[in-house]
Amino acid sequence: MSIAGCILAGGAGVRMGGQDKGLVLWRGRPLIESVMERFSPQVDMLVISANRHLDHYMRYGHPVLADGEAGFPGPLGGMERALHHIQSTPHEWLAVTPCDTPLLPLHLVNRLHAALKVAHADVAYARTADGDQPVFCLLHRVLWSSLREFLGGGGRKVQHWFDACSAVPVSFMEDQDAFFNINTPDALLAPIP
């Protein structure tokens, strides 16, 4: 299996007071560094989706991709750019995670890939006790044109796009704490699960 990874760090950070969440300090270092530490070993190559502070993100030594549309189109904008990027690579799959979950499962990609093989699906995404977690997903590269069409029609909700794809949810009920996300200033101070 040949899997590229994408960390989504291109949001507006509205609930974080407009801060660039990937660069917010957690345990003394930028959030994205904790995510990279856990996510990078699970994929064959990594890209970062970012729309601000591109020079800072480039210091990590991975391609940095800005959204193709202005105005922060949401996670799908980052997924679209990353899927476009891997069209010219040998990677068949794209694993995606947000930049604000520093405890993400170390077996995330393997579990998603195993579910895809069983279901013969093009998308697998995480499901926890809190519900669907569609930004933790594994996408087949053939979905790029479908996503471009969905965005072109004004679509912005990840789950709505998945509903039109061959998608399978994957239970991570036993890993609930691993999906702890830091998207508000209060969450930075919350006890670690």
Topology of this protein?
Layout: E1 3-9, E2 25-26, E3 29-30, H1 31-39, E4 45-50, H2 54-58, E5 64-65, H3 75-86, E6 93-98, H4 108-119, E7 123-128, E8 131-140, H5 144-152, H6 158-163, E9 167-171, H7 185-189
Parallel strand pairs: 1-4, 1-6, 4-5, 7-9
Antiparallel strand pairs: 2-3, 6-8, 7-8
Helix pairs in contact: 3-5
Keywords summarizing the entry:
globular, 7-stranded mixed sheet, two-stranded antiparallel ribbon, Spore Coat Polysaccharide Biosynthesis Protein SpsA, Chain A, 30% helix, 193 residues, 7 helices, single chain
The ordered string of helix (H) and strand (E) elements is EEEHEHEHEHEEHHEH
Radius of gyration, Cα only, in angstroms? 15 Å
As a percent range, the share of strand residues is 15-25%
Strand elements, count: 9
Number of domains: 1
Describe the 3D structure.
By secondary structure, the chain is α/β, with parallel strands linked by helices. It has a single domain (3-189), classed as Spore Coat Polysaccharide Biosynthesis Protein SpsA, Chain A (Alpha-Beta Complex), CATH 3.90.550.10. The protein has helices spanning 31-39, 54-58, 75-86, 108-119, 144-152, 158-163, 185-189, and strands at 3-9, 25-26, 29-30, 45-50, 64-65, 93-98, 123-128, 131-140, 167-171. Strands 5-4-1-6-8-7-9 form a seven-stranded mixed sheet, sandwiched between helices. It has a two-stranded antiparallel ribbon with strand order 2-3. Strand 7 and strand 8 form a beta hairpin. Helix 3 runs antiparallel to helix 5. The chain is globular. The N and C termini lie far apart (32 Å). The model has no long low-confidence stretch (mean pLDDT 90).
